[in-house]
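Lab manual, section 2.4: Encoding a predicted structure.

Procedure: take the sequence of the chain (129 residues), apply the prediction step described in section 2.3, and record the output as structure tokens. A sample record is shown.
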Amino acid sequence: MKLSTLPLHKAIADRLTAQTGYKIFDDHPENEDYPYVTMGAVTAASWCDKFEDGLAIYPKIHVWSRYAGRKEADEMADAILQALTGSSLDLAPSFRVSFDSLDSYELLIDEDGVTRHGVLIMKYYVEEI
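Recorded output:
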């Protein structure tokens, strides 16, 4: 079995850049204007059915906003969800996404009392081709 987290990460970042226009980072940028998106931690576990082996992968995607209220962060999360669930991500030639969905979404107010921080956890079942 091969680890498919890196190809999935790249496909997610490419899709979000192309379809949302948001600035996408792998880590918190220094001195970056809000809003932006960061790709967070990822969890992966083995899964299988009668026919295939693969990985269940749960990437976290963070939205960051300084808009007063939840509107901008929720709109960002909605755009991300639509981009990632509208059609399957292309992981060819080595992998195939057989299932994708939202696992959970949470919107937080950071300690500064101003920054809105949304966390989407996506769920992907990825098979090796």
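Check your result against the sample. The domain at 5-128 is CATH 3.30.2000.30 (STM4215-like).
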